[in-house]
C-alpha cells in the first residue's frame, strides 16, 4: 500500500508544473495573475513554476504590446506555451505508399509528404522510401531532426508492445520485422509503432467522424481488411495486439477472399491492388452488371465482418474508411443489414480523413506520448471522473 | 480545471479512513502501531480514524487474549474489519431456475438457494419465485434484510444502465421490464442489474478459471448464447449494454438456430430446454450417430461465434460455461479451430463454477459496489498504475 498523505516535494512540484502547463496550453497567453486564478496555486508557487518552464523552453514570455507598455509604467508580463518548442511525426507505411506528416507540439500539421512504393518492394526498400520521405519533409519545413519529440508509425499487421510486427502478411518481409527498433535508428526521440487500423481509429476520434464518440469501431475496408476500436476513448489493442483483425473471419463462414469477391472476371483481382478496386466501384456506379454484382458480393462480406465486430463490442459508431473512392456505395446496405442483425445497431459513418487517416492517427499517437510525459500527473489525478 | 493542491479536510479524512480500512481488511486484526506503520499515517490520525470506523460498525476492537493480558500490564488494543457488519446478495434469474446467494462484506458465501421456475412463467411469477428464494435464504442464514448493503442481479437480455431490460427474448415479458426498479422495492440497499453472461465473466475472474487473467471472454454456451468480456480486468458492457450478444451472429452466416443444430430428429429441440441438450451430449458420448452429428453441428456454430469474439477483442483467455454437462466435448474442437482461424489464438478453458457462475458474478458486482463506496478515494488515487 502506498503512502497517500504527507508531502513529496518533487512530486508536488511536478503536479504544479503540469497544472500551469495545462492552463497555458488552453489559452493563447496569460499573466501570472491569470494563472494564479485559474490554477488555484499561490502567487509565489506560480512564479517559481513558470520560471522553471521558461528554463525548459516549453514556455516563453511574450513581448509586451507597444500600446500596453505606454499606458502603464510596467505592464503585466504575459507567458505562452511554445508549441514550436518541439515537433512530432506521424508515419503511414502502406502497400503502395509511404506517408509522413509533421506537426508542432499542439498537433498543428506543418506539412505532409508521400512517396509511392511498389507493393512487392522488400522491407529494406520500403523503409528507405520512408526515410527519404521524412528527410525531404523536414528539409522543406525547415525543422531540425533534433527538434522531434516523438514519432508515431503505423503499418498493417499485428504489432507487439515492443514495436515488432508479430504477423504482417500484407507487406513483403513484414512478419517478424523489428519495426520500432529499425525506425529508432533514424530518430533520437521515442518511436511508437501501431497497427494501421488502430491508428486510423485514433485519427477519427481526434479530427474525423468520431470526435463526439468514445466508443468507436473503425473499419479499414481494404483488401487486407482490419479494424481498430476505441473503448471509452482509449485504443483497445487486445491482449496480444490482434484485436480487430477480422480479415480471418470470412475464412469461417465462406471461402471467398475480397480479391475474388470484387473481381468481374473469373480471375481474382491482384492482391492489395486498390486501383483495380476503385475501377470496379466506378463500373458498378456506371451500371456495369458484373461490376455491380462484384460490389454486392463485397458489401455482403463487409456486413458480415462489421456485424461480428458490432455484436462483440457494441460501439456507438462505426466509421468505414481506407479507400478514397467507392465506399459510399457500401454505406446504405451496411446500415440496413446492421439494423437487421444487431440488437442495438450503431451509427455508421464514412471516414472524413481520406487517405491521410492512418498517418494522422500515427501523429496523434506521438502527440499522446508527449502529452503523457508533460501531463502525466494531471491524468493520474483526474483518471476517475 | 480543479484545484489540485491545498487541503480539503473532509476529503483528507475520507482518504485516511479508506487507507486504514483497506489495511485492516487485508489482515486478520492489527494494533494501532501496526496500522500506523503500514499506512504511513501519524499515530493521532490513526487513532482518530479507527475511532470513527468503530463508530460506523465497520471496525471492532478485538477482545484481548487471556495470555497476552496476563503477560503485560496493558496489552496493545487490536482492531479488525467486521465483515459481518453487512451482507450482500447475488441473484441469477434464469429460464428454468432462480438462484440467490448470500455473503458477508468479504464476499464469503454464507448460503445459496435455488427454486425451479417454468420457462413459460410470466415475469410476475418469475420475480415472485425470486422474492421467495431470497426470503427463505435470509431466514435460514439468520440474516436480517436490513443488513443487506447491496444486491447484484443478473438475467438474460440487454440491460440498460438504469436496470431496465432493453431486449430480452429468452424470458417471457422480459423486454422493457424495469428490473432494477422492481427489485428495489424488496430492498432498501442499492440493486445492480447486469446481463447474465457479463456477470458470469466477472465470476470467472473472481474465483473461476480466469483469476489470473484481465482480458477474458466468457461464452455462455446456452440455447440463448451470449458472451461477457473483461478488458483490463473491467467489464466491457458496450455503448448500449449489448456487447457480446453474439446470438444474432449465426443469422448472418447460416440460418440454423442452436435448437435445430442440436436436434437428433427433424424437429428442433424445445427452445431453452437445457435438459434436452444434456441428453443429446450424453447420447453423443455413448456413440449415438445422430447425437454425434448434432453435437458436431453445434460445435461448428460455437466455433464461429467464439472466433468472431476473439478476432474482435483478442482476449488472453476464453472461458466456456453455462451448462453443467457436455461442454467438455466442445473444448478440443474449439481449441483446434481457433488455432486455425485466429492470428493469435487465446487459451480456452471450461468454467469451474458450474451452475453457480451467474449468481456468483452478480454477488461480486454487489461486492464491487460496496467496495467502491468504501474505497472510492483509494481507487481514485491508484487508478493509474
From TrEMBL, chains A, B:
GO terms for biological process: regulation of DNA-templated transcription. Pfam families: HTH_IclR, ROK. Residues 20-61 form the HTH iclR-type domain. Gene3D superfamilies: 3.30.420.40, Winged helix-like DNA-binding domain superfamily/Winged helix DNA-binding domain. GO terms for molecular function: DNA binding. Belongs to the ROK (NagC/XylR) family. This is Transcriptional regulator. It comes from Streptomyces ruber.
